[in-house]
Design brief:
Elements lengths: L2 H8 L1 H41 L17 H7 L2 H32 L6 H11 L7 H11 L5 H8 L16 H26 L3 H9 L4 H29 L3 H6 L11 H10 L4 H32 L1
């Protein structure tokens, strides 16, 4: 007789409790290494940033003088920080909205039954190309395209536009819209693929029922397609908002936050404040503010997913 069998025979209730505890704890043992790594790589740095935001001259001050909310007051009253937050909102809202519109449009095109299979496959491969590039490659590619003597100006001049010497990334008026456009190009394939999967999961019977009720294609789109994609759209929009609001490498490699802070967003502002001006305490306070905004978006994302699971 094994030890487990002997234990069950001797005390069945105690044995069942131990088995239930072991079964409940096994999943946590599997995720424990990942959680430990995340705590070391993310939890500790975040905790240090929060601590630095409450002390004077963080990192450079060995005395750790507590100053309360002084650093937060300085950060929140800094006009450059206000401008960076405003640019972050514009950059995020413009990118997410365009990602959604373009992604849905291309998903509808690729899901069309009237398109030949070969053409559909070719377009799918073509539309997904921007997603294959790394951020660094995307930035280098678009810097070449957007150069005053680059491809874009040459093409515009060839079709009759006066595009000689346009500074797409150096113009105060054009820099932010141009960076948004580049980010849109780089990010729409995620929406396209996700929404295409959502479209293909919609039951054809819903469209047949709508057709029987004499609903046109436009009515089917608004009363069948969009409601069925609602959960996917909300989740994608919130997730993309979190990612886009934290976008640093693309903007840094394209413009560095310039010209004259025209494309300065929260991540580039915090980076410059910390590593160019060595104001680590104020930079930590600004980073905590951005962290709270990101946590709010993360909570909305988790709640939307939980609601979708309950409804599903």
């Amino acid at each position: 007789m094994t030890a487990t069998a002997a234990l069950i025979t001797k005390d069945p209730r105690r044995a069942r409790r131990k088995v239930a505890f072991a079964s409940a704890g096994t999943p946590y043992l599997f995720v424990a290494p990942a959680v430990l790594i995340l705590m070391c790589l993310m939890g500790i740095p975040i905790l240090l940033v929060i601590v630095y935001s409450f002390i004077e001259r963080a990192v450079t001050n060995p005395d750790f003088t507590f100053v309360g909310l002084t650093n937060y007051t300085e950060a929140l009253t800094d006009r450059k920080f206000h401008d960076a937050l405003a640019h972050t909102v514009l950059f995020t809202a413009g990118s997410v909205l365009a990602h959604l519109v373009l992604g849905l449009f291309f998903a509808l095109v690729l899901n069309s039954k009237f398109m030949p299979v070969g053409l559909r496959t070719s377009l799918r491969a073509l539309f997904i190309v921007p997603w294959l590039f790394t951020i660094a490659a995307t930035a280098v590619l678009w810097r070449l395209v957007l150069h005053p003597n680059g491809v874009l100006n040459s093409v515009l001049a060839a079709v009759g536009f006066d595009a000689q010497g346009i500074e797409w990334l150096s113009s105060h008026a054009l820099a932010l819209p141009t960076v948004i456009a580049v980010n849109i190009w780089a990010g729409y394939p995620l929406f396209m693929i996700s929404l295409l999967a959502g479209l293909q999961s919609i039951s054809p019977e819903l469209y047949e029922a709508a057709s029987i009720d004499r609903a046109g294609r436009v009515q089917q789109f608004f009363h069948v397609t969009l409601p069925q994609l609602k959960t996917t759209i909300v989740s994608l929009a919130l997730l993309d908002a979190i990612w886009t609001s934290q976008q640093f490498p693309l903007i840094w490699l394209l413009t560095g936050g310039g010209p004259v802070n025209a494309t300065e967003v929260a991540p580039t502002y915090i980076y410059k404040l910390a590593f160019s001006q060595y104001e680590f305490a104020e930079a930590s306070a600004a980073a905590v503010v951005v962290l709270l905004i990101s946590l709010l978006l993360a909570v909305l994302y988790v709640r939307s997913n939980a609601k979708a699971v309950k409804e599903g």
